[in-house]
Amino acid sequence: MSDLESLSLYAPAEMVSLEEPAIRASLTLGHVLSGIGADYEPGIRLADIHLIRHTFKPNDRDALRGPEDLTQERVVAYTREQDVPPRFPANPPRYWVILIADGGRRSRLWGTYENHGEIESASTKKYRCFDLRPSQFLLPLSDRLVVEWDNPRSWHRNAGSVTGARMPVLEIADRDKVPFPGFDGVLLPYHQLQALVDDPRYADWRIALSEVQGIYLITDSSNGKQYVGKADGAERILGRWTAYARDGHSGNVALRELAEQSVVGKATKTQADHARHFVFSLLRVFGPSTPSSEVNVAESHYKAALMTRQYGLNRN
Questions:
Q1: Contact criterion met (CB below 8 Å) for 89 and 82
Q2: pLDDT band at residue 262, thresholds of 50, 70 and 90?
Q3: Which residues contact 194 (CB under 8 A, 6 or more apart)?
Q4: What's the pLDDT tens digit per position in 99-123?
Q5: Helices (H), 107-183
Q6: What are phi and psi of 181, to 5 degrees?
Q7: Alpha carbon 12 to chain centroid distance?
Q8: Backbone φ and ψ of 42, nearest 5°
């Protein structure tokens, strides 16, 4: 019997006498959570789990505005602050399962946190602040498990509730490998660049980008400003872009200034928030043995051709 089949046959006691759901499903979220929770010691019950569904709000600077905000740092900063009761439970459970709206009522599992209690010193009269720490619970299903959230207006609920346990599982998918499009086809939004660094789906990308030096272009899609940079010597394109994925500026003067400006007076911002609209592409690639002098000449040419010193983000 497969793991999926065994999960679908497991029905926790608190679900047996519940009324029929609006949509029948052979596998529900309650089955999945109970089956996996039973493997822990002590076991993780449905009542120990709170479900939270986040939606993107592009015009709200304090919310999650798009896929580029789905980082541990940003999601924790957004999730840890919750309204005072009754809008949020007075004593929320230990495990918080975070789902992200995925079109209509589809909701995709993003990750799980352990709630280690309220941080009273950081709470206010309007918001309570919780000590949330990443959990391994459900990690193998992250970005793969998709459920149907019956009422988008209700953005949180206990997993042991009728509506929580009975959510139909729509999909448990394999994460598809992302094929490398060739150097001329590289066009990476910043959130995808961050995935490139360690996501197994981008293994072919990492191999290709680790073999070449080159001239790259960063475009801020919010205002059209551009930055021309180079990766030469042993660093290669992958090494240089890994640094950008970490902090959004990789030490470049103008980009570092943008990073510093983006967090001034904004407690929920992160050091890389300025880079959320960045798009990375390649202008030219060189073999690993190409002299740095040749790479330098090409970099200067593209800075002049694109006028990034006069109107963009290059300072030299």
A1: no
A2: low
A3: 71, 245
A4: 999 988 999 999 999 999 999 999 9
A5: 162-165
A6: -85, 5
A7: 31
A8: -70, 160
Q: Is the pLDDT of residue 21 over 70?
A: no
Residue 86, preceding peptide bond in cis (omega within 30° of 0): yes
79-106 pLDDT per residue, tens = 999 999 999 999 999 999 999 999 889 9
Q: How far apart are CA 222 and CA 237, in angstroms?
A: 24
* Res. 200 pLDDT band, cuts 50 70 90: confident
SS3 260: helix
How many residues appear in the chain? 316
* 93 touches 300 (CB < 8 A): no
Token reading at 311: 């109107």
User: 217 pairs with which residues across the strands?
Assistant: 228, 281
Tokens of 28: 């529900």
d(CA 221, CA 278) in angstroms, rounded, equals 6
Q: Do 101 and 56 form a contact (C-beta atoms < 8 A)? A: yes
Structure-token pair, residue 222: 């919010």
pTM of the model: 0.68
Edge-first strand order for the sheet with 187-189 is: 187-189, 278-286, 213-220, 226-231
Instruction: Tell me the average pLDDT of the chain.
Output: 87
pLDDT, tens digit (0-9, with 9 covering 90-100), for 53-71: 999 998 898 899 988 888 8
- 39 burial level (CB within 10 Å; 0-12, 13-18, 19+): exposed
Q: Crossing angle of helices 190-198/236-247, nearest 10°?
A: 120
Dist. CA 246–CA 202, nearest whole Å: 17
